[in-house]
C-alpha cells in the first residue's frame, strides 16, 4: 500500500530535502519520478543535484531524453517514464489519476512560507486522504522534522 508523505518546508530548501529523500529511495533500490510544474525550475533542480558531493551523487536526468526509461531519478512534468516505485511532487505538481495507488511512496514537498503552496498542499491532502490513501504530514517548524498528523493508517 502506498504511503503519501507531506513535507511542510519552513527552513530547508526543496533541493536539500529532495536530495535527502532521493538518496534514501535509491538506497532502497527504488526508481523515482520527480514531477514539477515548471521546466525551468526542474532544470535548476537538475543542476543543483549535479553539484552535490561526489559521495552523495544522485544519478538522474531530465525527462524527454533518449535514456528516460533507464534513469534512477527522472525529473519532469509528464507521466512517469522510468518505471518508478516512488513519486516526488514539488511546486504544486499533482499525481495523475490512479497513479499513486500503484506506487510504494509519494512525497509532496511544499514551501510552508508560500500561502498558495499551502493551499495547494491542503487540497492535495484532502483529495488523497479521501481516496483512502495512507498519509502522514511532517513539519520542520520546530527545527527538526516532526510528524503532525496521520490519516488512513493500514490495519
UniProtKB/TrEMBL annotation:
SUPFAM superfamilies: DNA polymerase III chi subunit (SSF102400). One of its GO terms (molecular function) is DNA binding. Pfam families: DNA_pol3_chi. Gene3D superfamilies: DNA polymerase III subunit chi. GO terms for biological process: DNA replication; positive regulation of DNA-templated DNA replication initiation. It comes from the Bacteria. NCBIfam families: PRK05728.1-4 (NF004347). This is DNA polymerase III chi subunit HolC. It comes from Rhodobacter ferrooxidans.
Amino acid at each position: 500500500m502506498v504511503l503519501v508523505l507531506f513535507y511542510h518546508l519552513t527552513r530547508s530548501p526543496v533541493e536539500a530535502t529532495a536530495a535527502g529523500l532521493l538518496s534514501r529511495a535509491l538506497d532502497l533500490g527504488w526508481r523515482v519520478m520527480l514531477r514539477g510544474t515548471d521546466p525551468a525550475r526542474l532544470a535548476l533542480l537538475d543542476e543543483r543535484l549535479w553539484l552535490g558531493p561526489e559521495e552523495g551523487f544522485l544519478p538522474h536526468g531530465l525527462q524527454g531524453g533518449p535514456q528516460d526509461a533507464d534513469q534512477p531519478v527522472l525529473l519532469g512534468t509528464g507521466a512517469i517514464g522510468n518505471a518508478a516505485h516512488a513519486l516526488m511532487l514539488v511546486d504544486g505538481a499533482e499525481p495523475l489519476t490512479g497513479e499513486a495507488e500503484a506506487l510504494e511512496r509519494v512525497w509532496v514537498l511544499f514551501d510552508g512560507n508560500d500561502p498558495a503552496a499551502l493551499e495547494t498542499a491542503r487540497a492535495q491532502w484532502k483529495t488523497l486522504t479521501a481516496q483512502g490513501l495512507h498519509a502522514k504530514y511532517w513539519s520542520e517548524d520546530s527545527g527538526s522534522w516532526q510528524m503532525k498528523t496521520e490519516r488512513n493508517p493500514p490495519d
